[in-house]
Amino acid sequence: MAxxxxxxxxxxxxxxxxxxxxxxxxxxxxxxxxSVPYDLATxxxxxxxxxxxxxxSHPRHRLLLSALSALSLAxxxxxxxxxxxIASLRPDPGCPPPPFLLRLLHALLPLFLPADRPxxxxxxxxxxxxxxxxxxxSHPEWRRxxxxxxxxxxxxxxxxxxxxxxxxxxxDAVAVxxxxxxxxxxxxxGDAIKVLEAALEGHPTAALNETVVVNLCSMYExxxxxxxxxxxxxxxxxxxxxxxxxxxxCTRM
Length: 253
Fold this sequence. Notes:
Elements: H1 2-9, H2 22-29, H3 35-42, H4 46-54, H5 62-75, H6 79-88, H7 100-108, H8 117-132, H9 145-151, H10 155-168, H11 173-185, H12 189-202, H13 204-207, H14 210-223, H15 227-241
């Protein structure tokens, strides 16, 4: 198990390629080329994305570029700056309607600003009402079978269901994390650790989030007497590959 952690520490993150022919498709639709922002965002390079957007100019899609800038600021925990950017925007009849991302950030950002927190609920309800009013908003309610298995404490069945999700999308960090937890609850701590380590090694861009790392470190603490050394190796690897918005304190080192 420790060897797997060491192997993971030598991996480097790889981002998925931008959508094919993104620049040509954007030009055909009169949209700005978002291939570079897409690549930076998938790698969590929010500082670089913010710098790139500062140099970008596309008058007809100013709101779209501003939404990406606000997202970058929020990811960097500069919530007040993100809110100020959104507040500075004004409707422009010559521009398309505000993108949904901008409307969602406008509703969510007050949650991170104590003085404005009461605004969040009203804005979220307003946004929900507008979404429900869309003609394509109706959809069937799905109950995930794996969740039912977990509630019933049938962890072996839950593991099988999560494996189906992972087969469909190997970068599904939620399914990987939950599969590992079910293995741990089944007292298979060794395999639980291997699942999370393999995800970090194989899909660092998708799997490297605080929840996965907290759970992996907790498993190390349960499994190893020298867990501090193993966690230090993981922390060193995270320092090299983590996105800009990652909170390194989650390793509890």
